[in-house]
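Need CDPK- kinase 5's 3D structure for a figure. Predict it.
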Amino acid sequence: MGACTSKPHKPNPYSSRNPQPLPSHPYDPSQQIPKTPLTPARDRKDDVIAGKQSPFFPFYSPSPARFLKKSPAPTPGGGGSKSASSTPRRFFRRPFPPPSPAKHIRAVLARRQGKKAASAIPEEGEEEGGGGAVDLDKRFGFSKEFTSRLEVGEEVGRGHFGYTCSARFKKGELKGQQVAVKVIPKAKMTTAIAIEDVRREVKILRALNGHKNLVQYYDAFEDQDNVYIVMELCEGGELLDRILSKGGKYSEDDAKAVMVQILNVVAFCHLQGVVHRDLKPENFLYTSKDESSESELKAIDFGLSDFVRPDERLNDIVGSAYYVAPEVLHRSYSTEADVWSIGVIAYILLCGSRPFWARTESGIFRAVLKADPSFDEPPWPSLSTEAKDFVKRLLNKDPRKRISAAQALSHPWLRNYNNVKVPLDLLIFKLMKIYMRSSSLRKAALRALSKTLTADELYYLREQFALLEPSKNGSISLENISKALMKQATDAMKESRIPDFLASLNPLQYRRMDFEEFCAAALSVHQLEALDRWEQHARCAYELFEKDGNRAIMIEELASELGLGPSIPVHVVLHDWIRHTDGKLSFLGFVKLLHGVSSRSLAKVQ
Ligand SMILES: Nc1ncnc2c1ncn2[C@@H]1O[C@H](COP(=O)(O)OP(=O)(O)OP(=O)(O)O)[C@@H](O)[C@H]1O
Ligand SMILES: [Ca+2]
Ligand SMILES: [Ca+2]
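Structure prediction for CDPK- kinase 5:
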């Protein structure tokens, strides 16, 4: 057992001598999360230490989608919305309570603690170390020399899965170096999933080491009782505490400074094929307490993170309720889910309250799925149009319409802030892959659409094209793409199979692509569709297409383009899309063609 746990004044809350009290009725879906006033971190941590009733440990895990099936439960104080599409905010004269520590979704805890049903809920203390955990292999292959290498100091923080102490290397080349050690008790790892999570947390930290906004990883150790993750000590505290100390409101410039750092590290993770899945202000730490200095923000806690292949959708429900994206609740998501969480953080920074709030977990989920966050109440009317547009684009409920982290850094609200550099975005390669597999007809339609892009919209594409270092004649090939990716490669890219994905861009091996074609290939039709001016774009593009690309087509040709199988009566479905007079595409057909094969049928092809 690490020295951390033997400190008499800081008892280990994970020890069976100090069990977390269970909720009085774990089944009660309306169980209230206690109202959370402006709570300094110290108090809430002390609450846990003192063994008071914790709102963080609901032990029952009903299907997180169950709220979709039943009518919304009325919630006291008007916190729940009566109509599915109304935001609970409208029932409040005052803003929501200020942000407070986020709770993990029940399903996360249940899966990781091995609770299959309510009847499986153990008595207090039963879960600690024993039960089903006996035959689990809890060997990680980490060094066993923790106590000889490090001297442990004060506790500096804690979460559900671990607690963190300051420490110092006793010997070796890092001798004297102050570090942080996250201690994860093996007794808490009662399922294979929990063990795998810890294994992956270390693997990801190790692979991603080196980004300036990601906590630096030094080493991992283990003994009989714990896993120890040794990393850089961030002395400036959690972003959440900074938000609370500022009364929940940041100036736009202060919010930009936070956003740029968060987006930088998240864009980097996404390029590596890592999705964090638990982005919240508690999981960003400042390196120093000094607000005026160069204190940097660091992402921590990759405990729920995973590798995701470019074409893959994840399905396990993971995260913290206030920050969880709608598609996570629908069990089909990828890196865009992190961008949603960043949107929630941005909303909180700018106005001081949460965009989706209710007293119960199911109430929060309903709001996330159905409610539109308010941008009408103060201080929103006094904030810049760009700031509002930025937050709205992050909080688009459709992940295909949501902008990526790299795109967020090129949004007008941020693009001129402090020499922001737009990083390479995997999204362009995903879109290029679909483009290359499209028919010449769809390519022509996309080309027409790309000609309608405004200078503002072209900014991101220009930046991405420049990152691919085109040749002197202004074109790129597969080699440019692989070089640009290799420059950024870490071990994580292998895990997330990005090299395999690159092979799908093989047609570019034999030809080059100029900027004009690149725009057609890398533009996102779904994202453009989310803009107010979409109709204009599409009409204008259709006119251009009429001049250059429209031709009489066979219904079968269009059906195959759209991935419609022979069992579907294509004549009936597609009739509206073809002009009767000349057999060419109608406007509706043109728009359908722009969208191309639906992602579902594309997944089948792969
Ligand atoms: N490198 C660090 N430097 C300083 N403090 C840290 C560091 N890493 C973690 N902490 C503190 O410890 C707390 C818990 O760490 P972490 O979030 O990794 O644990 P967790 O159990 O996985 O949390 P969660 O409940 O969010 O899943 C952090 O919120 C932070 O206050
Ligand atoms: Ca955490
Ligand atoms: Ca965690």
